[in-house]
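User: Teach me something about this protein's shape.
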Amino acid sequence: EAFFGRAPLTEIDPDRVVALGAALQADVLVGNKPDDEMLLLDVLPLSLGLETMGGLVEKVISRNTPIPVQRAQEFTTYKDGQTAMLIHVLQGEREQVADCRSLAQFELRGIPPMVAGAAKIQVVFQVDADGLLSVSASELATGVSAAINVKPSYGLSDTEVTDMLKASFAYAKEDAAARMLLEARVDGQRLIDALSAAMQQDGPALLSPDETQTLQLGIQALEAALAGDQVQLISAETQNLSQASDDFAAKRMDQEVRKALTGQSLDGVLGQNQVTADEAH
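Assistant: First, the predicted structure itself:
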């Protein structure tokens, strides 16, 4: 009393005070909506994501998300026969890798070789109550996985966070336009790569000289569009080439079906279909 200048308050149970405080903090940590009189401070200051094809950033957890938090998202391979994937973890609000903060990189190996887009890679972002980020990637068919831990806020000042947010607002329009262009280029190049590989493998047997020339001209037109920066032109040429290759894709599908049925009797095929139908029921 002599030190503080007032009589100490003794009618409050200290154990009850600690218990109530712990209960309130636990309520915040599990993600419950706070009361009007509470201020939730434990949130992510910047978005977390990873790099995708074309140097783009795919945000997995948005900024201002309360922590702890966990988010999962599926990705796939870009090239045929791809057996590894680089996971580049990023922080920031911009749309391109060059404009965001690199946090960590690790590689997922052992992906079964498949056609592009067939593999399923699940990436999980988990931020605990202390702000520690854990990122794991696993191939769903085989279970092969890899992971890394990182502290997103390490070495990042409040001023730097503010500057990154201001830049995202200032360049929002330019970033959106750049993302549309890069996405169009990725889609166009993916179509060229897939069609070129298919023509090399099955073109001589399934395509006439005129059909081959038509597809080659379509590829050249799309390549010319990809060299520019007109999103509408790239999208139009991509659609034109996709439509021009529909018949070729159908022929390849028919060829695969014939290969699968070669040497099998009609009764055998019907029997397999019956088993499949019974299993479905």
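Now, about its shape. Residues 275-281 have pLDDT under 50 and may be disordered. The chain has two domains: 48-168, 174-270. If you'd like, I can walk through any region in more detail.
User: That's plenty for now, thanks!
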